[in-house]
Write a structure and sequence with these properties.
The protein is mainly α. The chain has 16 helices and 2 strands. The chain has helices at about 5-10, 15-40, 50-85, 90-125, 130-145, 150-160, 165-190, 200-225, 240-270, 275-310, 315-340, 345-350, 355-365, 370-385, 390-415, 420-445, and strands at about 40-45, 45. It has a two-stranded antiparallel sheet with strand order 1-2. The radius of gyration is 22 Å and the shape is globular. The model has no long low-confidence stretch (mean pLDDT about 85).
Length: about 450
């Protein structure tokens, strides 16, 4: 069997998506465990659980910002490499593999330097209490300035998936998550003789575990016979190859960056509310992420499959496939939102939170039944558009909708009309539904068929 036939046999939605889903859900589970452990943080016998959760939750937007910057390379390279594999252009795919690694190194080093100097002054803008400010700075400074391992982990995983390998990143990131949880336990509770570094230790544990996983994934790449990795090409990459990756990756990252900045602004709205609002908002988002990861995983699989089909010239397969994957994701989101809402109080009882935080969070979780089905349009259909090379329209309209609908109505409902975090949740829902329906009709129009980067000759 030829290398091309091997890749083709791996390119089906279940084989691609299932390992991605397991990896994302494991990442979610371990994040859940992290929050649970942080909620028990105490220093000199004084509990700082809610403060730690609120601070780390606030930095999540900045961490996502870092990840989004890396997506300029990783998302673009994943789409471009997969399309070239679909078109059976192995040399072109190899050139973009090496180019993506070089770009990841450059971007990763630049972000590390920037975050070392900017973490503290940026967080000062939020005017947090002294203890929350300290926790937030501790986490963001370590995570941001040492995030090169996170960048390489994501980049190497994207390369493997562009060749149809999804199981390997799943298994190795599972190992990384186990290392992370063990490190968190040691640093939060001072177990096994480790120093009780609290939030600082949690950030350090995250970076070390991600770096170990990145190294192991890179070893797997070198072991795959159908993935060429000529080191001599590091010094021969062409600007045109980098531009091709960034032409897809920059707009994709731009959309996510816009979304993340919008989330930071909404966090700023929340900070100005009752002190219970911020931890409640972050706890509720932790529950929402459980549902998000299903749609996000299906979207990642959709992007890979569509990229491959478009490169291979199988446009009808791509067209009907996206509708099928989205329909499944939509009804799954409805089901999961109902399940989460039914069991929300039992799960929330695991966290030693203030009664007011509990009440607000419980109400927000109910609104996932409104929010999450609408989000599936954007997680799956936009992923299909990007996989086909149709990047600019979803990004431009996405930015318009996030700010013109999401942020505006979050402010009006949450702040102006005093609905609090519930109003912010409704504003987010309005953005997801309106933007998603527009993307549905964009895919249905088949304009994306003319946007392919690589096609089979």
């Amino acid at each position: 069997m030829t290398a091309q036939n091997n890749i083709h046999s791996r390119m089906n939605i279940i084989a691609i998506t299932f390992p991605i889903l397991i990896e994302n859900m494991l990442r979610y589970f371990f994040s859940f465990v992290d929050m649970a452990m942080l909620s028990h943080l105490s220093i000199d016998g004084i509990s700082y659980g809610d403060d730690a959760v609120a601070s780390v939750g606030l930095t999540a937007s900045f961490m996502f910002f870092i990840i989004v910057i890396h997506m300029m390379v990783n998302s673009g390279s994943g789409i471009v490499i997969t399309q070239y594999n679909g078109a059976n252009k192995k040399t072109e795919a190899t050139n973009r593999v090496i180019t993506s690694v070089v770009l990841s190194l450059i971007v990763g080093i630049a972000i590390s330097i920037a975050m070392f100097f900017l973490a503290e002054p940026v967080l000062s803008l939020f005017k947090l209490s002294d203890i929350r400010h300290k926790f937030a700075v501790d986490y963001l400074l370590v995570y941001g300035s040492l995030s090169l391992g996170v960048a390489l982990n994501s980049g190497f995983s994207a390369i493997l998936r562009s060749y149809g390998y999804s199981k390997e990143p799943m298994l190795l990131n599972f190992l990384g998550n186990i290392i992370n949880v063990f490190g968190n336990y040691c640093f939060i509770f001072g177990a096994f003789g480790f120093p009780q570094w609290g939030v600082f230790g949690v950030a350090l544990s995250t970076i070390v575990s991600q770096s170990i996983a990145a190294l192991l994934i890179f070893i797997i790449i070198l072991s795959k016979e159908d993935i060429d990795f000529p080191f001599k090409l590091f010094f021969k990459i062409k600007l045109a190859w980098a531009k091709e990756i960034l032409r897809v990756g920059v707009p994709t990252a731009g959309e996510f960056m816009s979304y993340n900045v919008a989330q930071i602004v909404m966090n700023f709205f929340v900070v100005q509310m009752d002190p219970a609002a911020l931890p409640a908002y972050n706890y509720a988002f932790l529950f929402a992420r459980f549902i998000i990861y299903f749609g996000f995983s299906i979207g990642q699989g959709t992007q890979i499959i569509v990229s491959y089909f478009v490169g291979a010239g199988k446009l009808d397969d791509a067209y009907h496939g996206v509708f099928k994957y989205w329909s499944f994701s939509f009804f799954l989101a409805i089901f999961l939102a109902i399940v989460v809402s039914v069991f929300r109080k039992s799960v929330l009882a695991m966290f030693p939170m203030d009664p007011e935080v509990f009440s607000i969070c419980s109400t927000l979780i109910l609104f996932t039944m409104l929010l999450e089905p609408g989000r599936t349009f954007n997680l799956v259909i936009i992923a299909g558009l990007k996989g086909a090379g149709d990047v600019h329209f979803p990004v431009r309209f996405g930015i318009l909708s996030m700010w013109g609908i999401g942020v505006v109505f979050a402010y009006l409902l949450g702040v102006k009309f005093s609905l609090g975090v519930v109003g912010i949740w409704i504003g987010i829902s309005m953005d997801e539904w309106i933007r998603g329906i527009i993307m549905f009709f964009r895919w249905r129009s088949r304009i994306w068929e003319s946007k392919a980067i690589a096609t089979k000759e």
